[in-house]
């Protein structure tokens, strides 16, 4: 064996021994792993002294969120709803004062219902609920239907005119209103019962009270009647949609 071969063997042996030493350094035992995890958790967890220095904020209640500036709403009463308002005033006044803890009064001179929050008001959104309730009554809804706005959070009001769907004038507009109402209100009641909404026809305006999805279905049905669809076709579409809703839920 030549001297060159001996030198190559010695170099290979040295490289192999150094690689073994590096592998020994890389291997981590279970004890070392446990000590590393303990030190990491101790570093991540703040000490009791540091935790005590941080401010602790308790959740705020509705009364704490209330400011000294009281909110108010004013809703104008249409002339055709002024007489019914006198009859149903007790039914309107009681839930606003007893349930929502608000102050309400009727201003005969300006013909407006004024609502204001006070110190006893607990819910920050109570005044908006009361305003929606009174506005729904002024649109023509019954008190029993409008009061649902105070008890449920997912009810909405939507208003649109017949001219928004199709431009109609004269007798054509009257016939469209007649198609929506039907004989003795049959068509309107059918749409209300199928979609679980309430509909008010006020001249050329249509007011719908209900949930978002139900309002969409009722609006489409009323729109089809305005465009000239026969009531029988609208009934069949409503029947199909109601069956789909029952299967979904």
Tags for this model:
single chain, 249 residues, alpha+beta, Ribosomal Protein S8, Chain: A, domain 1, 2 domains, 3-stranded antiparallel sheet, 14 helices, 13% strand, flat
Detailed description of the structure:
- The protein is an alpha+beta fold and 249 residues long.
- The protein has two domains: 69-151, Ribosomal Protein S8, Chain: A, domain 1 (2-Layer Sandwich), CATH 3.30.1370; 156-248, Ribosomal Protein S8, Chain: A, domain 1 (2-Layer Sandwich).
- The chain is 59% helix and 13% strand.
- It contains 14 helices and six strands.
- The strands form two sheets. Strands 1-3-2 form a three-stranded antiparallel β-sheet, with helices on one face.
- A hairpin with a 4-residue loop joins strand 2 and strand 3 (112-116).
- Helix 12 runs parallel beside helix 14.
- It is flat and about 105 Å long.
- The N and C termini lie far apart (91 Å).
- This is Pre-rRNA-processing protein pno1.
């Amino acid at each position: 064996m030549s001297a060159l071969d001996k030198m190559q063997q010695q170099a290979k042996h040295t490289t192999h021994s150094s690689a073994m030493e590096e592998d020994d350094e890389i291997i981590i035992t279970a004890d070392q792993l446990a000590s590393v995890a303990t030190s990491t958790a101790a570093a991540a967890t703040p000490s009791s002294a540091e935790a005590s220095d941080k401010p602790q904020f308790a959740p705020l209640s509705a009364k704490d969120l209330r400011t000294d500036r009281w909110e108010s709403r004013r809703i104008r009463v249409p002339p055709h709803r002024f007489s019914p308002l006198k009859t149903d005033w007790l039914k309107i006044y009681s839930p606003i004062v007893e349930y929502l803890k608000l102050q309400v009064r009727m201003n005969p001179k300006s013909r407006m219902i004024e609502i204001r929050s006070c110190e006893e008001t607990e819910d920050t959104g109570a005044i908006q609920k009361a305003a929606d309730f009174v506005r729904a009554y002024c649109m023509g809804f019954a008190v029993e239907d409008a009061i649902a706005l105070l008890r449920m959070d997912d009810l909405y009001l939507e208003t649109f005119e017949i001219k928004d769907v199709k431009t109609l004038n004269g007798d054509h507009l009257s016939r469209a209103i007649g198609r929506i109402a039907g004989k003795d209100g049959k068509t309107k009641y059918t749409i209300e019962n199928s979609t679980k909404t309430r509909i008010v026809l006020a001249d050329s305006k249509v007011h719908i009270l209900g949930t978002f999805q139900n309002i969409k279905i009722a609006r489409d049905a009323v729109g089809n009647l305005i465009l000239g669809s026969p009531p029988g076709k609208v009934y069949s579409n409503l029947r199909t949609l109601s069956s789909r809703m029952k299967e979904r839920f």
